[in-house]
Amino acid sequence: TSPTLIMSRFWSPVVHNLTPYVPGEQPKLTNLIKLNTNENPYGPSPKVQAAMQAEIADTLRLYPDPNADKLKAAIATYHGVSPAEVFVGNGSDEVLAHAFQALLKHDAPLLFPDITYSFYPVYCGLYGIDYRTVALSDTLEISTDDYRQDCGAIIFPNPNAPTGRLLARDAIETLLNEHPNQVVVVDEAYIDFGGDSAIPLVSRYPNLLVVQTLSKSRSLAGLRVGFAIGHPALIEALERVKNSFNSYPLDRLAIAGAAASFEDEAYFRQTCQAVINSRETLVGELTHLGFEVLPSAANFVFARHPLRDAATLAAALRERAIIVRHFRQPRIEQFLRISIGTDAECGALVKALEELLSA
Ligand code: PMP
């Protein structure tokens, strides 16, 4: 039987109509300089590995705690909230998926920026959520004024992806005040690289849900842990969806390793600062090469060269074993998104660009 026939006969219409999310490349080659998916070059705290090894010793036979209480307690203590205000999931992608189902599906459309994390429209397609995009400003910033319209809910990353631009906490507070009857989800995947988190607003705004990940600033992309902080009643909605989907989203190793990462503040601060310092150096060097670089509060920069085609540059870098991200999307197709690597990796990138630009 042909695959086409199987698809047309057995696939649900939702799958037929779904434009799937295209993840950044995870190459099998190991000798590449990988600056394409915003991983942290420094690796997690040594305490994470120690905690996971202790966990391996004799508990893998047993199911994990379905509520991941230990991790929730660690996150709650770290962020100064109560465990009832914390939800954890298998990467922030899963946390977001549950938020889309539990909190963002309403009769009126969900609003998010036209240039943003490309998973959002995919979740809308999957869960049948009506949405409307709001154009970024000329400077590729989120302008909260443009969100003054009827809507069912709002979601955006802060800093935004893939632009790296930060929205000030005051502007988020204005948005929350203007939409008291709508949930506002702030996806803070990159907040630890120079932004102010909206978490302190949670106690005053029951319509705010803040989502974070351990994949970037805590260098645990491989462990798949994300969390949300919000009013206990918002968290309860997420728990309900989660329990109807997979009662054990986090395995024992993830719970142990993730909890331990919150116990090494010195390592966390030091590695975040190292990434920020390398970013500032890279911004200077790219600017020197003639790139226009957007101000970034993330562990990546978004840059374009006025005289060079971005797709061509990305392909030429790839030939030199350096991979960066390029999006074929209106308004940003001349940009490259470059993750911040070690200084040596950033140096190799700058050298390669220098050669390509002088050719
Ligand atoms: N939100 C944004 C804005 C992201 O860029 C990413 C990373 N692709 C995620 C969420 C998901 O991260 P993770 O699932 O690794 O927590």
What does this structure look like?
This protein has helices spanning 3-10, 13-17, 46-58, 69-79, 91-103, 119-127, 169-178, 232-243, 252-261, 265-288, 310-319, 343-358, and strands at residues 33-34, 86-89, 110-113, 131-134, 153-157, 183-187, 208-213, 226-230, 292-293, 300-304, 322-323, 335-339. The termini are far apart. The protein folds into two domains: 3-43 and 266-358, Aspartate Aminotransferase, domain 1; 58-264, Type I PLP-dependent aspartate aminotransferase-like (Major domain) (Aspartate Aminotransferase, domain 2), CATH 3.40.640.10. The chain is an alpha/beta fold. The strands form three sheets. It has a seven-stranded mixed sheet with strand order 2-8-7-6-5-3-4, sandwiched between helices. Strands 9-10-12 form a three-stranded antiparallel sheet. Strands 1-11 form a two-stranded parallel ribbon. Bound molecules: 4'-deoxy-4'-aminopyridoxal-5'-phosphate (PMP). 4'-deoxy-4'-aminopyridoxal-5'-phosphate is lined by residues 91-93, 117, 157, 161, 187, 189, 213, 215, 221, 226. 4'-deoxy-4'-aminopyridoxal-5'-phosphate binds at residues 91-93, 117, 157, 161, 187, 189, 213, 215, 221, 226. InterPro entries: Aminotrans_II_pyridoxalP_BS (IPR001917), Aminotransferase_I/II_large (IPR004839), HisP_aminotrans (IPR005861), PyrdxlP-dep_Trfase (IPR015424), PyrdxlP-dep_Trfase_major (IPR015421), PyrdxlP-dep_Trfase_small (IPR015422). Residues 31-353 form the Aminotransferase class I/classII large domain.
